[in-house]
Amino acid sequence: MRVPRRRLPHPPWNGAALVGVAALILLSCVGHHTSGQSPTESESTPIALHAKQFAARPSETTPGIPSRLNGVNGFVMSPSDIPTGHDLTNWVAELTRRGITMLLVEIGTGEPTVQVAGAGHPRPRGVYFHSGWAPTVRDVFGEVISVAHQHGVTVFAMVSLRDMNWVDPTLGWMDRFYDVRHREVRLSPYLDLFHPGFQEYLIGLLTDLADTGIDGMLFRNTPALGPYDGLSAFALGGFQREFNRALDPAELFLAAPTREGERPKFRPEFWQWAGWKARERMNVLERLGRAMRLQNPRLHVALEMHREAVMKPAAALVRYAEDLLEAKRRFEFFLIPPDSPTVPRGVAGDGDSAWASTISSMVAQLENPERVWLGTPVNLDHGIRAGRLPSSSDRQGLDTRIGLILMGTGPAVP
Length: 414
Hints:
Elements: H1 16-34, H2 46-50, H3 52-55, E1 73-77, H4 85-97, E2 102-106, H5 140-150, E3 154-159, E4 174-179, E5 184-191, H6 196-210, E6 216-219, H7 233-243, E7 253-255, E8 265-266, H8 269-295, E9 300-304, H9 308-311, H10 313-320, H11 324-327, E10 333-336, H12 353-366, E11 372-379, H13 383-386, E12 403-409
Parallel strand pairs: 1-2, 1-12, 2-3, 3-6, 6-9, 9-10, 10-11, 11-12
Antiparallel strand pairs: 4-5, 7-8
């Protein structure tokens, strides 16, 4: 039985009222920053208030994983490629016959979907479920979840929190990054995970998403929170509160790469900042997952982790603000995306020793192969009937308890 709904007041999407709400949020945020409190740790921030009942509970080990999530064959789908009506039922049935046990669907539009869609008409911006926090392009989740469940297919939503192109940039929720060549902080095209106003927005939006009945949530890290990102006033204020020192971004970087492939050079202070940023990012994701479980207690949470998080932890901390050993105490599943579209079939087999060692190390670190999801690309330019779906060759040498996630490119409607 679902927990009774606790809803934050929904701002109207358009009009002067939204501007007024944004102004109040921003004024509140300024108060937090000037007081020197961390926007993600202060008990008065929206995300902390909403999840306060969980805050005192220490991180728990992963509960038992349901058999339906053991060794999944997942299929990443663009919502715009999912058919409607009777075609949807036939489509899901076809996926089931082809061995698919999980669908992973983006919650909304991202950068690729704002390109011109033909005849000079831009595609709409918004989300694919009903919410008072964003315009609804189409209720894909409302359509697909019941059909998928009837066929024994689980549905995970996917989101890239920093890339929500339907969020109005004039709200002031954009991140800041350091331009090492000009040695100055600049406005980022991506959203600021540490902004209290944006955190409150995410709670409202993702609580609505949890109410659709999804089985789980995958937090992607694309675009990644890189070494020069995350330098907003709220992040810097949080760092200052924890370490009792102000941080000047210019102090962190010694020199910019002068040619492609060259490693950037960092000052010793950078590593303290990188560790704080990765930990705070994880705190935000964990609290969002807990807030979603208020509405949907059976919801599972997965994280995207790059390959370096398994094999080169220091590199992953710098490049992506990822820390697998810390994350494994807080989340259930971990997806390693393919490095490129040229990853061969049988990615975990003996033919690719690099991938084999990555998977072996990841299983050892997580102490449970069921928590590992391996991403592999599949070209679906001609639809799922002509395209390649999971086969025995893909799982050659792969523990049957490990999930295999096909990340399709091109149209996928049969």
